[in-house]
Structure formats: C-alpha cells, structure tokens
C-alpha cells in the first residue's frame, strides 16, 4: 500500500509520567451590569422573561471573567475564564446554569496553562459547595481531569453579578 493511502500511524502504548494532583484556589468575577461587563447575553428565548430578567431561562451568555487571588474587585488578577453558559432553570429561586469555560492562568507557576470545565452549576444552592467537572486542560494541566468546588462568595440577584470561589483539584501528568 502506498504511504499516502493510510490516514493513521502505528499505535504504541503511552508512557506517561506519574499522575500529579494540583490544588488551586481563585475567585471568578462574573459581571453582567455596568459599562464594562465581563459576561454578555448573546441570545435569549422570547417566551421566558427575555430581556426583562438578567438571567432568564434559555439565555445564553459569553464570558471573559477575571480570575483573582482574593474576592475583592481589585485583588491580583491571575488569569481569565472564557467560555459560555446557558440559564437552564425556569425558577429563578433554583437558578442553574450549564457552562463550558477555559480557565486560563496568565501569571505565576501556571502561566500559559488552563483547565477546561463543562458541567451543570446550580448557582442558587447556597448550602455547601457545588461541584463542576474538569474535562481537560492545556500546558501544565495537559490531559487534566478532576473537579472544582464552587462556593458563591457574593451574588446580586437583581443584576446577576457574582463573585465565586473556585477550589480546583486537578489530576494531570
């Protein structure tokens, strides 16, 4: 068979280094209000409150949220979370989103690396922490898996603005 007729190469067993576990804590600032929002609604359903609600059911948002060391607005920025989320609950008192985001680090030990999350996030649950799945990563977090425990530090249900604490447990090679 001619070399150009094959679309794959030989399969060899992977020789991976020992798996590592890294734990990181940071705060994600999701701002829908004001002159410089970090989350913007790009679509919404006409039948579910539409533009009258900051986080109406069926609304799709794109994000470029800062990641900081502390919960304060002017805390040291260490990266940004870029991605999307959709409001997936009709009852605002049970506000839930489904989100995909790449949480990229732009300074320090993990500069140039990121973790990717994709999961359901029941934002309105105030009891305890919520868990979000880590489904991948880049750089030092290549082939990542794990979970993020999310705790709402502050949320304004009128504007949708929120500060969330992320405690990530990342398994990677």
TrEMBL record:
Keyword Secreted in annotation: yes
Keyword Secreted belongs to the record: yes
Record's keyword terms, sorted: Apoplast, Secreted
Predominant subcellular localization, coarse grouping: secreted
Location in or out of the cell: Secreted, Extracellular space, Apoplast
GO cellular component terms, semicolon-separated: apoplast
Signal peptide: none
InterPro entries per UniProt: Dirigent (IPR004265)
Family per record: Belongs to the plant dirigent protein family.
Subunit composition and interactions: Homodimer.
Functional note: Dirigent proteins impart stereoselectivity on the phenoxy radical-coupling reaction, yielding optically active lignans from two molecules of coniferyl alcohol in the biosynthesis of lignans, flavonolignans, and alkaloids and thus plays a central role in plant secondary metabolism.
Protein name per its UniProtKB record: Dirigent protein
Species annotation: Arabidopsis suecica (Swedish thale-cress)
